[in-house]
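Quick one - inputs below.
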Amino acid sequence: MGSKVIRISWLKLRRGSIVKNQPYEIFLLFVVVVWIIGISLLSKSFLTIDNLLIIAHRMSENCIVAIGMTFVILSGGIDLSVGSIMALTISIGGMLFLNGLSIWIAFVIGICLGVSFGFLNGLLVVKVKLQPIIATLATMIIARSISYGITLGKSVGGFPPSFNFIGQGYISRLPFPFLLMILLIILGSFVLHRTRLGRYIYAVGGNEKAAFALGINISKIKLFVYLFSSLMASCAGIIYASRVGAANPAVGKTTPLDVITAVLIGGTSITGGKGRIFGTIIGVFLITSLINGLHLIEMGAYWQIIFVGGSFAACGKFGK
Amino acid sequence: MQTYIVKLREHSLFHWQLIFSFLKILIKTPVVFMFVFTILFSIFLSFSSPNFLTFSNWMNISRQTAVIGIMALGMNLVILTGGIDLSIGSIMGLSLCIAGTFIKMGLNCWIVISMIIFLAAALGYLNGLIIMSMEVPPIIVTLATLSIYRGIAYIYTKGYWVTGIPYAFLSFGRAYVPLIIWIIIAAIIIFSIKTSTLGRHIYAVGGSEQAAQFCGVNVKRVKLTVYTISGLAAGLGGVIFLGRCGVIQPTAGLGYEFQAIAAIVVGGTSIFGGEGSVVGTVIGALLIGIILNGLTLMGVSAYWQGVVTGSVIISAVALYNLRRIYQ
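Output:
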């Protein structure tokens, strides 16, 4: 009788320790493995180097934005304006370039303006005390409007090849955006998991009142995450502009939803405080390879959307 | 005589008090404030453009705002319970796309319209079912169904538009029909939310779900109902949209959820639920519609109108938050 009780409690204890160590990431890895095996069975060309490089190329932009979005969602907020900030950055850069400015200066100014919108987001959330969803909804509308307004709805093209290298260049077979993405992943993970700032972000997201009681400057943390997210969005916009060779004000309309999907699939809780960059990367990879894989199986462009939504819901369920 | 003089004195004080209490009502009731602001803004606009106060212009405003206005009414109920429904644009698009085949088959106009509304309500019910059964936050579920429904719409139409809509359908978007439909729906919702049990339950669930549960409110049923109503409203909006647009595209309704949210928050509903009025949503939708119309009449490019919309949202919500802080 006594040993049974001990055994049961030992079992429970053991279960507890496995479940407590990132079970969701194990589940995610499982899903990725199953998915890769599944697709490669259906299409011989999925696991080729060329195809993987294509996936890497495609996923760079969304992944960079997703890193910023992870920071925001971890702190308990949300940023709907990332797509519009992408558009704003390249619209301003493109128009300045069209008016004779050097392309690098033009896009640096574009990045500065994009980041200032992130600052606006932060101010609205922290000082005006708007809810993040409303504040970023408003800035999303404003930024998109400005993008269209200054470009009059047209794309700006004709960038010099030195600029196009950012989006189209390769360094020993690896796409340049992919390398940038790796760099930013390392940077993001480092800040989030190894610095005090990162711990504070988790704290603010987990329990804001407790974080405040601990003396954490919540305003600064929140301001930072929105600045960071807009910086990432601006960079992603530049990569897009150089990849496509044109600055299009209509870019990024589905980006906030795609990126939030990826972040949430990756295991980050929508209320903040839980989640890792690693999960986000897996999320972006899943979605990008999903679209890529479906292309290969020739399942039609629109099924992808259903799968994205479906896997989203499924992962949301399992994440609980 | 003396009492008469005293009464006169009381009257002169009374005027001050009247103004004072009116101001207090203005600040305390966001709806009244927004309404007054709308009127003042309209007066301002009538000076800056001669065409603003014309009957045809106001009919135009009513037609343009009706679609979002109706959808915002439906979503308002969802937000009042503390949830959110981001999929209304896709619900509208999908129900229209599926109805497209039946229109081409030549079915009676009323049958097709009932089909659109029923289908949209069913999609909303599906939203509610998923939210209830999976216990995933509504924002995630409706984000997912936004993609799923939109994807189904694309697949169903294979990207093609449906043109050649019979005139019977187009009549829903002409003249004063959108306005009448909007007024009827708004009246029904405003009346029932104050008087019916469902209305009280909606506010209760939004205020505190646990407390409502303890009070015997069937939280699950309330939530299912509001998501169905939200879908229904999306379907109705789709009918009017079809009447105005004349074609069915798989991209119909893209982005409408955000415009609806804009109208709802400008009208004073808290995004967390439990607080807010349906009248406010009507006024919010009207205000945004009037502002956009006024800007067009003033010659402001359509591209720059978004800046104004965003600023209105920020100002309105900031005002409401200030009021809540200082109460």
